[in-house]
């Protein structure tokens, strides 16, 4: 058992190191063809169509998804399905990225012919310089010649790893050229933890926060707190600017003779607030650190909303 464990561990390390070395070789090999591909993709008026067969097809799907989520409209077209009607998904104004390690995949013939017929720019990615794909491509990106991770050299491993990394490199280069921001990213990732991490206070806050004037008697203030359902109420001065907040702690501190006071006499002045553009995670951190359940949201001196800790938790902000 020990011998088997040792052998498999060494195999795992060898595979990972070989693929890591292939990525180093790919980084060193990038040149003018990469820059030309980025320029071609930037100029596209339509979509980026990514295609490949077999393992290259799986990589192509991921590359298309990465493009789409980072501001470059893209989708995957299966080359075999393209020959049976899906060529209609590839139109003038689009740019094609076709992946094939050998560059001779027969199922690519129709999609390559379609690209030539309609003058659709073609970016080819392959591991053989003189292959059909490389000859047909307007921009040919040649993968460096490195061994696959298996000792037989027949299982697509380092070649697919390099192709996937190349797709990421293209996507991030386009993303940075377009000044793609976290707000843009959130538009394409509204669900799950990614979307929750990028939510802003304005996305979760309640507009029309509970507010009372400083001169209001505490009997009316208690009614306002009860109606709001937040357990707090903001207090405004004569100009309508936020002057303070009344929480359950303030009520307990003034319990003796509470009804003889006004809102201005009971409130805590200069409460902690947050702006609309702050990340919801930042607001949650403030509430946790101060052991409070609500934050008034301000725009300058005015209170324009309120955020409750439960709003953050329901949205998955942690």
- Count of helices? 15
Estimate the mean pLDDT confidence: 90
- Please state the overall shape, judged from the principal axes of the Cα atoms: elongated
Measure the end-to-end span. Answer: 43 Å
For the biggest β-sheet, the strand order reads 2-1-3-4-5
- CATH homolog superfamily of the largest domain: Glucose-6-phosphate isomerase like protein, domain 1
Architecture per CATH nomenclature, i.e. the level-2 architecture of the largest domain: 3-Layer(aba) Sandwich
Largest sheet: 5 strands, parallel
The succession of helices and strands, N to C, reads: HHEHEHEHEHEHHHHEEHEEHHEEHEEH
SS class: alpha/beta
- Overall helicity: 40-55%
Rg result:
30 Å
CATH topology of the largest domain: Rossmann fold
Write down the domain tally: 2
Q: What is the subunit organization of this protein?
A: single chain
Parts with pLDDT < 50 across at least 5 consecutive residues: none
Strand content: 15-25%
For the record, the CATH class of the largest domain is Alpha Beta
Descriptive report:
- The protein has 318 residues and is an alpha/beta fold.
- The protein folds into 2 domains: 2-180, 3-Layer(aba) Sandwich (Rossmann fold), CATH 3.40.50.10490; 201-314, CBS-domain.
- The protein has helices spanning 2-29, 32-42, 55-69, 79-82, 109-117, 132-136, 158-177, 182-188, 192-197, 201-204, 218-228, 248-253, 263-266, 280-290, 309-314; strands at 48-52, 74-76, 95-99, 122-126, 139-142, 206-207, 211-213, 233-236, 242-246, 268-269, 273-275, 294-299, 302-308.
- The longest helix has 28 residues, at 2-29.
């Amino acid at each position: 058992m020990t011998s088997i464990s040792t052998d498999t561990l060494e195999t795992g390390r060898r595979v990972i190191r070989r693929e890591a070395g292939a990525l180093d070789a790919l980084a060193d090999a990038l040149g003018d063809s990469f820059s030309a591909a980025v320029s071609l993709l930037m100029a596209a008026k339509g979509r980026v169509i990514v295609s490949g067969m077999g393992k290259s097809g799986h990589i192509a799907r991921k590359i298309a998804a990465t493009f789409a989520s980072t501001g470059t409209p893209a989708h995957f077209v299966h080359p075999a399905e393209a020959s049976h009607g899906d060529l209609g998904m590839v139109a003038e104004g689009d740019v094609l990225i076709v992946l094939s390690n050998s560059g001779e995949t027969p199922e690519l013939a129709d999609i390559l012919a379609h690209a030539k017929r309609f003058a659709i720019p073609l970016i080819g990615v392959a591991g053989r310089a003189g292959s059909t794909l490389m000859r047909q491509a307007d921009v040919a990106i040649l993968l460096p010649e490195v061994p696959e991770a298996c000792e037989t050299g027949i299982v697509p491993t380092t070649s697919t790893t390099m192709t996937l990394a190349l797709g990421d490199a293209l996507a991030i280069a386009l993303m940075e050229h377009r000044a793609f921001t976290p707000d843009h990213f959130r538009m394409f990732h509204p669900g799950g933890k990614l979307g929750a991490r990028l939510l802003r206070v304005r996305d979760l806050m309640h507009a029309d926060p509970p507010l009372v004037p400083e001169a209001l008697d505490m009997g009316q203030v208690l009614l306002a707190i009860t109606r709001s359902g937040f357990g707090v109420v903001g207090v405004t001065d004569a100009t309508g600017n936020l002057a303070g907040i009344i929480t359950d702690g303030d009520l307990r501190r003034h319990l003796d003779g509470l009804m003889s006071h006004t809102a201005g006499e009971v409130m805590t002045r200069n409460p902690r607030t947050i702006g609309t553009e702050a990340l919801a995670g930042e607001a949650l951190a403030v509430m946790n650190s101060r052991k409070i359940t609500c934050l008034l949201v301000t725009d300058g001196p005015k209170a324009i909303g309120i955020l409750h800790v439960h709003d953050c938790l329901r949205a998955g902000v942690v």
